[in-house]
Amino acid sequence: MDSFEYFDGRLHCEEVALSDLARDYGTPLYVYSRDAIERAYLSYAQALEHTNALVCYAVKANSNLAVLNILARLGAGFDIVSLGELERVLQAGGKPEKIVFSGVGKQAHEIQRALEVGIFCFNIESDAELDRVNQVAKDMGKVARISFRVNPDVDAGTHPYISTGLKENKFGIDIDHARQVYRRAAALDAVEVVGMDCHIGSQLTDMDPFLDAMDRLLALIDELNEDGIRIHHLDLGGGLGVCYTDETPPTPSEYISKVLERLGDRPIQLIFEPGRSIVANAGVLLTRVEFLKQNGEKNFAIIDAAMNDLIRPALYSAYQEIIPVTMSEASSDTAKSWDLVGPVCETSDFLGKNRSLNLEAGDVLAVCSAGAYGFVMASNYNTRGRPAEVMVDDDQVFLVREREQVADLFKGESILPVDR
Ligand SMILES: Cc1ncc(COP(=O)(O)O)c(C=O)c1O
Ligand SMILES: N[C@@H](CCCC[NH3+])C(=O)O
Fold first, then answer.
1. If we measure between CA atoms, which residue out of 394, 367, 374, 285 comes closest to residue 33?
2. How many other C-beta atoms lie within 10 A of the C-beta of residue 35?
3. Positions of E strands within 85-220
4. I want to staple 104 with a disulfide (CB 3.0 to 4.6 A). Which of 31, 32, 125, 358 is the partner?
5. Which of 17, 5, 60 is nearest to 371 (CA)?
């Protein structure tokens, strides 16, 4: 995480000390580095420089408008899964003709809006969805560009909750059924078959499952060619992992060079949908220690961030490094083992367990690698307001989302009339 480094004992994001941000904006607080986001995106873009490939950032990973705008300025495309994400991308300056629309349950009004603005392609995930897209397009007098998300039945070797390319997962169309669906689509009036798509899971640290999936899709593309169906683009989805602790995933350039080698001289445009690998290590979550307490043998640090702010540890037992924003003067010999737990009334409300730290009440800690699937998965559970978000750019700080206030938390709710 070289955009987050200690200088003079204080952890910085670019040129700004995180302890200053905690003081000025309060905690819990998400902090992002513009430089880290740009470098991560450019590692894809540069590896694809001499190709016509499109990098469609997966908006779900971090959909803050400032993040999307930074990527749009670099020429990124976007992978969306809802009308909300579509409107965010447009609001942030993303180009409709670089948008792919994924997701298993697109609704008619979402399809309609996407057709209205002219997105690049719908990644269709079922027979029934094909009919819906065809019908909506027909009613509008338009033709929808489509690809099918093929489920290649490969094991991504990741956490079972974030594995998506196995037959037993809800995603995509069974590869054994795909040729038939493509043929049916080719005969419909209001869709144009242009591509093929897959996304086999997230936080992959090994290249083989990606390449296995790609081989299976290339074989299917060849079969479709025999049927007279030409595939113009191949979307390999996202999924490249990042280092949370000691993982060593392939870099985007290692991954892309293998993919390009596999593609050979086929005249097919490549699309990638990276999310986590663009933003995870571009963000931290700052939290303050409220109290220290001991129950039996266990040392607990009660912090002001909770599972509602960052759910990954509770949901997947995910490990994220937790480090002090100010290096302790105390020697590491005096460190104790702590469970870092939030104020929410759930036993699974922890951000880290058995972490060796020198702690005092009032200390500010940074939960690392929190730029992806952090704020976007935050909730208001226990009627807690979601954190603020700031973007650091060199020595400048921009508040890119205000902290939710108590009044925001029951906005739109009402009670029954008094006579009931
Ligand atoms: C269809 C699709 N594309 C892209 C992504 C982004 O994946 P990641 O954040 O692992 O790169 C996801 C999420 O896993 C997804 O479901
Ligand atoms: N939300 C997950 C990843 C799922 C990716 C979405 N398809 C995480 O936090 O790791």
1. 394
2. 18
3. 99-101, 121-124, 144-151, 173-174, 191-197
4. 125
5. 60
As for the ipTM of the complex, it is 0.98
Domains and CATH numbers, the chain: 4-31+280-409 (2.40.37.10), 103-272 (3.20.20.10)
Give residue-wise pLDDT tens across range 19-76: 999 999 999 999 999 999 999 999 999 999 999 999 999 999 999 999 999 999 999 9
Distance CA 133, CA 136 (A): 5
Q: Report the binding-site residues.
A: 239, 273-276, 312, 316, 346, 373
Question: Which ligand is located closest to the Cα atom of residue 123?
Answer: 1
CA dihedral 37, 40, 42, 46 (to 10 degrees): 180
Q: Contact, 276 vs 268, CB < 8 A?
A: no
Closest CA to 179 of 221, 230, 211, 231: 221
pLDDT (average), residues 147-167:
81
Token output for 82 = 């809802």
Specify the pTM: 0.97
Q: How long a stretch of residues is the chain?
A: 420
User: 54, 98 in Cβ contact below 8 A?
Assistant: yes
Residue 212: count other Cβ atoms within 10 Å of its Cβ. 17
- From 13, 56, 198, 345, the catalytic residue: 345
Mean pLDDT of the chain: 96
Cis upstream peptide for 28 (omega within 30°): yes
Q: Which secondary structure element, helix H or strand E, spans residue 386, and what is its range?
A: none
Q: Provide the pLDDT confidence category of residue 170 given band limits of 50, 70 and 90.
A: confident
- The residues that bridge with 397 in the sheet, in sequence order, are 392
Q: Are 284 and 17 in contact (CB under 8 A)?
A: no
| Positions of E strands within 265-420 | 269-272, 283-295, 298-303, 322-324, 336-341, 350-357, 364-367, 388-393, 396-401
- Please state, in angstroms and rounded to a whole number, the distance separating the CA atoms of residues 202 and 163: 6
Of 39, 8, 15, 20, the C-alpha closest to 371 is 39
CA distance 131 to 139: 12
Catalytic status, residue 345? yes
φ, ψ at 338 (rounded to 5°): -125, 145
Q: 274-292: b or e for each residue (b if 16 or more CB lie within 10 Å)? A: bbbbbbbbbbbbbbbbeee
Instruction: Yes or no: say if 349 and 395 are a contact pair by the CB < 8 Å rule.
Output: no
pLDDT tens for each residue of 74-119:
999 999 999 999 999 999 999 999 999 999 999 999 999 999 999 9
Instruction: Report CA(379)–ligand 2 centroid distance (Å).
Output: 15
